[in-house]
Amino acid sequence: MDDVKLLEFFNRTGYITKEQVAKALSSKEKDEDIISTLLRLGFLDDNKLLDFYAKYASNKLWKGNPQDINIPAEILNKLPQHILRKHLIAPVSYKDNKLIVVMTNPFNQSAINELRFASRIDNIIPYASSKKVIEDILNKLYPPEGKILEEIGEVSDIEIEAGETELAPDILGQEASEAPIVRLANFIIR
Fold first, then answer.
1. What is the CA radius of gyration of the chain?
2. Residues 145, 166: one domain?
3. What is the pTM of this model?
4. In terms of residue numbers, what domain contains 33?
5. Helix or strand holding residue 182 (H, E)
6. Are 38 and 16 in contact (CB under 8 A)?
């Protein structure tokens, strides 16, 4: 379903006004999904979006539990995280060569095709969910870097022992010609 038809349907069903339709079309950023535009502008929120799908596309509404998600690592590695985050797509199941995903707009065929092409997974079945649920799933499957550091342990708990190291003149000559970041890395490693 294209953006204009989807916006018209939201308007006819009373979720947004004609003025909001016009504003959404004029405010849509390049490569942004129209549902993301509506959410960004505050014309829709997660509750309205889920209510819309429950009433008018209940067969597209994901009814699973984010805690039950278990995607094989080899499948997660095929899914480019930047595409998932860009289009707000979260994988929720992989079985019988079928990838089930949730997204705020399961009608966004270009996003599905982009994921299909990048992952080389041909059978992708989209369902609708809220932005919050999708972001929570993505953060569970692909923790932000700061979260990874927290899980490893507090950075302040790491002790670095300082010691003096004598470097041979030939090593110093080699390092002098390297980029500053390489010299710094070599210094820290030694």
1. 24
2. no
3. 0.71
4. 3-44
5. helix 180-189
6. yes
